[in-house]
Amino acid sequence: xxxxxxxNLKKNKLKFSVTVTLKKDVxxxxxxxxxxxxxxxxxxxxxxIRQGKFFEIDLNEKDQKKAExxxxxxxxKLLVNLIIEDYSINRVQ
Length: 93
Description:
93 residues
């Protein structure tokens, strides 16, 4: 019975990844520091680095459209500063 319960939980669970990056026209001081440090370490072939945030979100939801809508809502309300950041949502298998 425990195995059946765990299988049902897995069926009702969807996983998403959210990648948040600064918008292209927003200065990225952390990325610049990393770029400068790598250059100082002799890695001169690095052209640019932009830093960001990454989230993995597990939802107890069967319906993918509902789940994506919920994750999008999470991004807009808390995870992303829409003024200076962009984001992408991807389903993880």
